[in-house]
Specification:
homodimer, 396 residues, alpha/beta, Aspartate Aminotransferase, domain 1, Aspartate Aminotransferase, domain 2, 2 domains, seven-stranded mixed β-sheet, four-stranded antiparallel β-sheet, 13 helices, 13 strands, globular
Chain lengths: 396, 396
């Protein structure tokens, strides 16, 4: 009864629901406090107090007709102006109102730019490991996803493989920095090399290749690691952002796209993206929350919360004898499975009520993702299970 | 540089922008108080006080993590339960949580159900005059729009033409009740006949034909006219709703889909729709505002405001000698152009600073749409211009 291309997805979502049900059953058996669910990337830090205050002020002082009303499909001009100024101050860019398009989260933004750019059969390059939803976003708009295999040494980018996979049909490249699931930040060196490659390929094919940077984790970088701002390195870069993680507002669906004037066909793309925002059914980013984030651009991210978890997790797992990629950003740790079949490892972890996500879900088997956006105390108390799990595999 | 199928749309949106610029220029010349802009369907009644109070209460008492956090992609269970109970009480239905999917407005909901149902080449029937965006929503998901010509007597449905246009590829029919742009409410008799036709055609083709009812104007019906609740008349009916008009929250992007258990393949469709909500990039309806509408289901719509405008406009236009369809719902009046080329009429109206939308935009030339969701005083003061316009065409 449903669309053919939805059938796989619906089956898949039953699998996720089954996993969720299993977790609930586990919680009922041993108590929720003894289930260590590292499977979900859901911030559990509350939104900063500035958010609540901004909502109150707007409701008390704002005009309800304009506060909850339609605006230009690109978003409120004053909010777009504030976002542009904030970026310019922080990154030395020179964006104006026309370069900012307010979106229904980063997921909305990605769909908008893909709708604006892709023709049937257009190819979109992604680097493994990658957030699995990109596959569906590309498919939504008739594109074909092309996966660059993971660079297994440092989980930066395998640009040699990428070079072979870029064709005249390559319309876009999606990058996620800091990366979900690896927790890696792509370095300035990596970004420069990627930019060089894309410029070279644009010349070779006389084409425009748009680099779409998905950056919901931009503010979550530790130890002073810098996350390069892509538009400074590549002329055809589009940035997708969301306040889901930085202000802990994932349910509110609020983010933006940066569409620089340096893009090939900038004006046309800006116009197409605004139109795509409308016709995809988003219409505009939710109005009240647009104004709220506009008033909270300088609110501090509670980085210390995640950093404490990160350090405890790294130390604990190291002691257990696990190998993992050093997490520099986001709130994910990318653990090497002690056995090739990481799904077996994920299954074994369940015995200790530890829930992990297999790397296959991110096109990178042999690894598992640990989302450490949980209570600190959970990390500490999970270590006993991790130790037993490590012992089972002869790691300690 | 942009997707081929976006080129027409981008050109078209420049035309709209040009119109908007023209309006601004007009306002600068004669003063905004002397421009009678009847072109936009933007409610200008403020949201009821309950909305502001619900926001305050939630921010003051709610837990910010869950208030702004992810929930099931279908929406908060408690809100879905309240919506189901509210519908059951008002319409004698028997919906449960699983039948309600919270969406990013009605536009989001329509895209979700079309994504869930359409295969490439699936046909979707619409009845002229119709909201022009339906064309793009259907195209987004690979469908083909099939237009049933308008029934010009009463602007109910031309079911004889529809009968000829339904094929084995017809997957869905979109109905908009009350109708934008005609202001007509499709009667119970019309709905019964439509239902009979669809049942007959389902048998003929051994197919399932889903009737998608787009109902953002449901609460805006005048003189006690009843808007039939579609699920009571047809087994394969899906309802799309939005609080944009009833609570004056168009910018907030909040609505729902009703996916009854009576649908062929109900469970599969419910699951596909939730998945579509996720992968289209909506992810979920905005969280805070979900809770807000859940607490405002019994807030009164300010129908009197629109009704006063409707009456003044009807009386005034009648006196001028114009012909129009009796507006029973929404906030639109559907005026017969005194000349066949309604675009010439729209142009002539501009001389009197009256802005109208030509019927061609709704696949129904020869008519123009007047959106009367404006200040009452504007209606009164526009009458002088309407009179002169009528005189120009020899109507009075």
């Amino acid at each position: 009864m449903i669309a053919k291309n939805m059938e796989f997805l619906v089956k898949n979502s039953s699998a996720i629901r089954a996993m969720f049900e299993e977790g609930k059953k586990m919680a009922a058996e041993v108590g929720p406090e003894n289930v260590f669910d590292f499977s979900l990337g859901n911030p559990n830090v509350p939104a900063p107090e500035e958010v609540g205050q901004a909502v109150r002020d707007l409701i008390n002082e704002g005009d309800p007709v304009s506060l909850h009303g339609y605006m230009n499909n690109a978003g409120f001009e004053d909010v777009r102006q504030k976002v542009a100024e904030n970026l310019n101050r922080r990154f030395g860019t020179s964006f104006a109102v026309r370069n900012i398009l307010m979106t229904v989260g980063a997921a909305g933004g990605l769909n908008v730019i893909l709708k604006a750019l892709l023709d049937p059969g257009s190819e979109v390059l992604v680097f493994a490991p990658f957030f699995g939803e990109y596959r569906w976003y590309v498919q939504n708009h008739g594109g074909v996803l092309v996966t660059v295999p993971a660079e297994l040494k440092k989980f930066q980018l395998d640009l040699e493989s990428a070079e072979k996979l870029i064709t005249e049909k390559t319309r876009a490249v999606i990058l996620n920095n800091p990366n979900n699931p690896s927790g890696v930040v792509y370095s300035e060196e990596t970004i420069r090399k990627l930019s060089d490659l894309l410029v070279r390929k644009e010349r070779e094919f006389a084409s425009s290749i748009y680099l779409i940077s998905d950056e919901p984790y931009r503010e979550l970088a530790y130890d002073g690691v810098e996350v390069p701002y892509l538009t400074k390195y590549y002329h055809n870069a589009v940035i997708g952002y969301s306040w889901s993680k930085s202000l802990s507002l994932p349910g509110e669906r609020i983010g933006y796209l940066v569409l620089p004037d340096e893009l090939d066909g900038a004006e046309e793309i800006q116009s197409a993206a605004v139109t795509a925002n409308r016709i995809l059914g988003f219409v505009n980013a939710p109005s009240l929350i647009q104004k709220v984030v506009g008033n909270c651009l300088d609110a501090e991210v509670n980085l210390a919360f995640y950093d404490q978890n990160r350090k405890a997790l790294c130390e604990g797992l190291k002691e257990c004898g696990f190998s993992f990629v050093k997490p520099e950003g986001a709130f994910y740790l990318w653990l090497k499975s002690p056995v090739e079949d990481e799904k077996a490892f994920v299954a074994a972890a369940k015995k200790y009520h530890i829930l992990l996500v297999p790397g296959s879900s991110f096109a990178c088997p042999g690894y598992v993702r640990i989302a450490y956006c949980v209570a600190y105390e959970k990390i500490q108390r999970s270590m006993d299970g991790f130790r037993k799990l490590a012992a089972e595999y002869g790691l300690c």
